[in-house]
From TrEMBL:
Keywords: 4Fe-4S, Cobalamin, Cobalt, Cytoplasm, Iron, Iron-sulfur, Metal-binding, Oxidoreductase, Queuosine biosynthesis, tRNA processing. It is found in: Cytoplasm. Its main location: cytoplasm. The lineage of its organism: Bacteria, Pseudomonadati, Bacteroidota, Flavobacteriia, Flavobacteriales. This is Epoxyqueuosine reductase.
């Protein structure tokens, strides 16, 4: 076994030990097929008020502009599918936001992984990325053979569906690379048919500015009244396109204790949410991604649903 294969194997073994679902590796090179797609999406203003999506266009497509001298992109998946979900009489939170904010959980694991690489292999430079820099996570994961991009624009894997986070290490070490996998969406259009706001405008294209996740998390002003009655009780994020996807029948509960919800969260009813105080918000979402929308944002969303 040559060094590239040996090092790749070492990284994948350590990733598994750290609790990652899977790990794939691809060469750090310009994302040629993504460039026109991203440009077209931005030109159509499908990013809405997410101005940051238009920033650092070059860096999004070329990892060597993010990490100088980089040779490899190590993509990792971490399962967040919960064992239990909210009570039926409740306003809904996207499942990824049940527990501790994933940025913290994954960043720690990535730091450990990079440290192990440096200890076992030697002087390796690189950076860890968790959805907080201009990196096209899904494109890299697909390029690394971890799945294919479904019609709802999420990464899909035959064995485990799509309820997982994607993260990367971009490093200056040459490794053995994985090949891409094939698309298994076939003729299925369940995600397109089920989207409450018709945000999936065509297969593989999501108009971000029409997505419930955008309205409930990213949008800072009032939600447009034209969308009244279309949110199906989603107050933070939306899982509809993933919930209806046939591949998610293979989802298994995660084993990360930090992703377990606050004990009160799953039993809160619509009335509890409507009466939520800032103190309760702070207590239930102390380390949660929900803090991003702030108490004022969450109450705005709840009021929009109940009016």
């Amino acid at each position: 076994m040559d060094n590239k294969s040996k090092y790749s194997q070492l990284i994948k073994t350590e990733a598994k030990r750290l609790g990652f679902l899977s790990c794939g590796i691809s060469p750090a090179e310009f994302l040629e097929t993504e460039a026109p797609r991203l440009e077209n999406w931005l030109n159509k203003n499908m990013h809405g008020q997410m101005a940051y999506m238009a920033n650092h266009f070059d860096k999004r497509l070329d990892p060597t502009k993010l990490v100088e001298g980089s040779k490899s992109v190590v993509s990792l998946l971490l399962n967040y599918y919960p064992g239990k979900t909210q009570t039926t009489d409740s306003y809904k939170l996207s499942k990824y936001a049940y527990g501790t904010d994933y940025h913290f959980v994954i960043k720690d694991k990535l730091k450990t992984l990079l440290q192990t690489i440096q200890e076992e292999i030697g002087e390796v430079g690189g950076r860890a990325f968790v959805d907080s820099a201009p990196v096209l996570d899904k494109a890299w994961a697909a390029k690394s053979g971890l799945g294919w991009i479904g019609k709802h624009s999420n990464l899909l894997t035959q064995q485990v569906g799509s309820f997982y986070f994607i993260a990367e290490l971009i490093i200056d070490l040459e490794l053995a690379y994985d090949g891409v996998t094939t698309d298994h969406c076939g003729t299925c259009t369940k995600c397109i048919d089920a989207c409450p706001t018709q945000a999936i405008t065509e297969p593989y294209v999501v108009d971000g500015s029409k997505c419930i996740s955008y309205f409930t998390i990213e949008l800072k002003e009032n939600i447009p009244s034209a969308f009244k009655g279309q949110f199906e009780d989603w107050m933070f994020g939306c899982d509809v396109c993933q919930d209806v996807c046939p591949w998610n029948r293979f989802s298994k509960p995660h084993s990360e204790p930090l992703f377990n919800p606050h004990p009160e969260l799953l039993d809160m009813t619509k009335q509890d949410w409507e009466e939520i105080t800032e103190d309760t918000f702070r207590k239930v979402f102390q380390k949660s991604a929900v803090k991003r929308t702030k108490f004022s944002g969450l109450t705005r969303n709840i009021n929009f649903l109940k009016e």
